[in-house]
Each structure stands twice: as C-alpha cells, then as structure tokens.
Amino acid sequence: MAVSTAPAPARRSGRRPIPPLIFLLVLALIALGVWWKVLQRDEERRAAAPDPCTTISAAPVSVDPATLQIRVFNASDTEGLAAQVGTELRDRGMQVTEVANDPTQREVVGVGEVRFGPEGRNQAMFVAANFPGLLSVPDTRSNAVVDVALGPGYAGLVPLEQVPVALAAAQSEAAVSAANC
Prior knowledge:
Elements: H1 18-48, E1 69-74, H2 81-91, E2 95-101, E3 112-116, H3 121-128, E4 135-138, E5 146-150, H4 163-180
Parallel strand pairs: 1-2, 1-5, 3-4
Antiparallel strand pairs: 3-5
C-alpha cells in the first residue's frame, strides 16, 4: 500500500462571504442616505439665508402704526416683560397681535431682535426706531408681520417724541450700508 504524499485539501471554514457583504452594502446605503439629507438641508439653509448685503429699505416716516402687525416675545429672564412692552406699543397706537415667550428658543443678547421678512422691511425699521439698540434679523417669512424679541439688555422704549429722530438715523444708516455693499 502506497502512502500518498499529496497535501490534504484545505478545509473550508463554512462561512459564506455573501451575508457580510450584504451588511456592508446596507451600511453604505444608509450612510449615503444620511449624507444626501445633510447636503439637502445645507442647500435649503443657504437658499433661505438672506443676502449679506440686504438692508432695510428706507421707510417713510409716515408709516401708520395702526397698520403694523407686531408680535412681542420675551427672550429674557424678566417675567412679564413682553406683556409690559406689548401694552406700551398698543398705547403708541400699534397693533400687537401676540405676546408670549420667544418660541424660537434662540439666545438673544443685548436689547433684543426685530425679526422680519422682505414684505416687512419698512415696518421693521419703524418698529426698531422705538427700541434703542435693537438688532435687525431678516428672515424668509412671506408676510409683513414684525417680531420683537426682547433680550436681557432691554431698558425701555425710546421716548415717543424721539422716534422720528431715531427713524431718520436708521434710514441714513441703511443708506450707508447699501452704498458700502
């Protein structure tokens, strides 16, 4: 009897390479889907972002306060601040449609923010003239509603007789900003 010297055939481990490959393919598809969604949101955010050179156009001093639609939000820790300011704005003849805590939960610093869309630029300039140091924050809303979010630095409204002066200063500042863009 002769002894065979040929090597024994290699034993297969019994594992099949297809299931791990399918798993890796599924993971790759999930990662691709996540990145697709991230890129879509980034494009939407860029499309919604205002032009950095966008300024508030010159508002006529004769804006009728009764035609303004203003929402007053409290973005500070002072309780009742939005209600107090809402009452003061109503006393000035403005139409305050909502008084509440800031629904955006943004951290507002300083005096506060005036938020408006393209349709409410002039109205926002008029409203901002009543608040010393209010930051203008344009957004993409499609109506003329103006939001005022009061921050921790809010100290009071501009005296009523000084509003036309503040409005004229804001108009000239807007004109300078537009010229520098």
